[in-house]
């Protein structure tokens, strides 16, 4: 409550102070003269002689009306013209030039000094047609000991007659003009500050859209500067056209109220009043009429009849806005300023009607009110600054707190990451134990490239981890040395993929160790490994599976056996021309309910041939175009194999030009080098195989069937790619009753050629003897037209088929 009262008192004192300052500039000598000295003792060259008392007022006919003090509005005397006179006595003639300061009078005033008509300063050849709002100063007075002043005043505006403002005085011309211009300069400096402040607020609001009230107040201050400048005496000093200036004065006056109302309603309630826009349109209409007025009387009439009545509505809107602002501390200040302004206007109206004699104060009260509004706007900036400072302090505290929490979280994350990277490092070490260490065998050179998508750093050592792995190990099958190759791409990235790759390589190593005591062919060894990995992954209920290529390289016969389990198609590079090998692939390892015969391919490699295996990371790339979609670049990959001659590093770099890698990448290249002695050796082996085959048939016919079986088995082992030898060996073991060996060779042929009907029937007989019922084999036999259900019954029909 005390704060509100203090702001109210401050606003009133500010208005009073503004009035006091400007009135003191005008009346300081008069006040000093009345308090400290008498006019009779004054020297007019050093101080002013004030002539406010004992003016004789007469009719033009000479009839005396009475004595009055000036300034005074004499319109209540009932005359349109009057003669005001006074005698002045000088005991000694002054030795300086004297001037008479008369003040503002009604229009058409004429001054006679000792019967001589005087011209007002700077009034030459009637330059100013109208000068009713100009302070009259008469220079070069013809001084005598006895002097007579006569002022003829006429009524131009209704209820305005006489000397209306300013105390008549005589003094040194230098001091008179100095006082006059000093006042005008002070006044100009003051109103110029309003222009500068207004422009600043306008530009500020253009930068900050939320400061809409500042924009309206800036326009108001700019209009108030224009109104104050045009209504002051500077228009006479600058020789501007009087009628044009009066039009500008009235137009700016009509626009002052709308923009101030816009500011006040937005400042107090943050929203506009419904009457504001219609009032603005009305002010614009009146301004339009002002433009086409032909004389000051029309301007005054339009102002009194059209513009001034609308001020009542403006006051009502302002008080509505003020009512909403009163709960705030500055609301009482606005109330005090507005009340003081209204009181000043009422006093000026009473003074203009000659009821009392007081100097005009409303225009200075307006200045005080504007100063208070400016203080409140600057105060709002200070409040915003303080609020911003408080917010910054709170924000700084929050930032400090959040920084501390973030640091702790970062420490925890870093600790967890170190632990995770430690897990990654351990997993990568385990994976490295299974990575290939064999680079060549016989005529074959083996190159590998593994690039995991997930990179990490542990103890300043870079590493990578993922689901791709390449394992190469030597194995022995049927007493001969082969090279087993595993290229697996396990589902998932990071630990999940690495776990799948580790399980696959572990099973690969385990199968090599366990198969050392078993009886296998390259095909059955591959399928057995495929089924073991598949069975292991099936235990994860579809949550883990893998694609891959399982291969066995026979360096002696220059051929490679491989099974493709959902991997991208293998590529053969021959004579610098690349092409896909297999037409279809087997199911991925880990797919539930796998029911198919795995397909094993056998490729004979010629000199300078290369065969290429790889995961789908080699061709699934993210495009760098708009949308960044993922595409499979299988055909471009095939083309780049030819262009790079299957150089793995160069191939990877060339494919990166098509897009970004998004998955783990693993590539295996098997290249057969040139060996001139190999051709003659291959020819000798083919001739020897035919001779040995005829020898084995001869032994069979002589009745030594078991010896013949061993003979056929060795021939098949020496040339594992020969499918006919595999069937002959399986049939021979079937005839001698060695069902397990017969099964191995028959399955060897099954995995190479699942549509060989003759072998299918033979394998069915073998399965019957061993008590094996293979659903997939039954399906293959049914496709050939056999009555499978009857065939597997122990009847004479089966014996007949056998």
Automatic annotation (TrEMBL):
Transmembrane segments: 185-206, 213-230, 250-268, 275-293, 305-322, 334-358
Highest taxon of the lineage: Bacteria
Pfam family, one: SpoIIE
Keyword check for Membrane: yes
Annotated ranges, domain PPM-type phosphatase: 450-672
Keywords: Membrane, Transmembrane, Transmembrane helix
InterPro entries, A to Z: 7TMR_DISM_rcpt_extracell_dom1, PPM-type-like_dom_sf, PPM-type_phosphatase-like_dom, TPR-like_helical_dom_sf
Name listed for the protein in its UniProt record: PPM-type phosphatase domain-containing protein
Organism: Leptospira selangorensis
